[in-house]
Design brief:
By secondary structure, this protein is mainly alpha-helical. About 65% of the residues lie in helices and about 5% in strands. The chain folds into three domains: about 110 residues, 3-Layer(aba) Sandwich (Rossmann fold), CATH 3.40.50.300; about 55 residues; about 140 residues, no CATH class. Helix 4 links the parallel strand 2 and strand 3. Helix 6 packs across helix 8. The chain is globular, with a radius of gyration of 23 Å. The model has no long low-confidence stretch (mean pLDDT about 90).
């Protein structure tokens, strides 16, 4: 959004003008931001974006279409987008966002200009949190460190006691891995945590959306007007898909936290004391002394493989069970 604001701002992104403020608030009429709620971006969703991308800008010099998680484009969706990326409207800019360049299909990325965003330093994130959230310096420093440069996640951790408690419980699961039974219990618990978080974050929104749709299709009598039942069924399907994605995203975030734990173990084994999870320093030190660095590297590789498997839509529980057995 900041990049889009800079493109529309007459002063290169001042952050103060009406264009900047409306873009950053997500209300600029010439900027469309598509954030997929499901596990993938479907071809029909891309075709709708393409149709709207042909509109001329209303107030700015550009019409900007932002696709979050472009790595989630299905092959059919990527093919649908390809011609538009090759020959976009003269007034339209497409911004495709992805974790890494290699996550996007070759055919798409070969037709785009690449902009690598630098991960902000821990100090920069800490200063941002203090300035923009009002948290104290100790809390800001903690959130900035454990978020590993992710500002959105740092803000969430700094301002959400539940997020801090979940992180501690998730990391504590690693220290409980003693045998096969404990590995299976830990996997089930991590999945429960991810599901509970997804339901907590989505339930209120889902109920509100359903109520609004029911009100919109309510007829003058006791029943709904034509098309209401199908619309509700489609909404429930979308909400189920969004919850499934949220669960997988929560698991992925948990695995990143666990990976940071093994990173710290490897650092201790290498003679460094600059670890991220200082609230688990004693436990990390004990694990570091109990195994060689080679073992820590193997455990990190197992975590990376589990994340890749989840990205390929493998079953979450069996993936976690296999992972925790490998970490034991």
């Amino acid at each position: 959004l900041a990049f889009a604001a800079a493109l529309l701002c007459s002063d290169g992104g001042c952050g103060k003008c009406l264009d900047c403020q409306t873009v950053l608030a997500g209300t600029h009429i010439d900027v469309e931001r598509f954030n997929p709620s499901g596990l993938s971006i479907k071809a029909e969703e891309v075709r709708e974006l393409i149709s709207r991308s042909a509109w001329s800008p209303s107030v700015g010099s550009w019409r900007i279409v932002i696709i979050e998680d472009a790595d989630r484009l299905t092959e059919t969706a990527a093919n649908a987008l390809l011609k538009t990326i090759e020959e976009p409207e003269t007034h339209t800019l497409w911004l495709l966002c992805a974790p890494t360049l290699t996550d996007v299909s070759v055919t798409i990325r070969s037709r785009c200009r690449h902009l690598q965003l630098r991960t902000p330093s821990t100090l920069s994130v800490e200063e941002f949190l203090i300035k923009n959230t009002g948290v104290d310096s100790k809390n800001a420093a903690f959130a900035a460190r454990v978020s590993q440069g992710h500002i959105g996640r740092a803000r969430f951790i700094a301002t959400n006691q539940g997020a801090q408690s979940r992180r501690r419980e998730i990391l504590s699961l690693i220290f409980s891995l003693k045998d096969i039974s404990s590995c299976f219990k830990a996997a089930a618990r991590l999945l429960d945590i991810a599901q509970e978080q997804a339901e907590s974050e989505n339930s209120e929104r889902d109920s509100k959306q359903l109520q609004q749709l029911q009100d919109a299709y309510q007829g003058t009598g006791r029943g709904m007007i034509s098309g209401g039942a199908k619309a509700i069924k489609d909404l429930e399907k979308e909400q189920k898909s969004a919850t499934t994605r949220a669960i997988r995203d929560n698991i992925d975030g948990a695995l990143l936290d666990i990976a940071s734990l093994y990173r710290d173990i490897l650092l201790i084994q290498s003679g460094s004391q600059e670890i991220l999870n200082i609230d688990f320093r004693q436990e990390i030190t004990e694990l570091a002394s109990a195994s060689p660095a080679k073992r820590s590297i193997e455990q990190i590789e197992a975590l990376l493989e589990a994340r890749a498997n989840l990205g390929r839509n493998s079953a979450p529980l069996s993936t976690l069970e296999s992972l925790f057995c490998a970490l034991k």
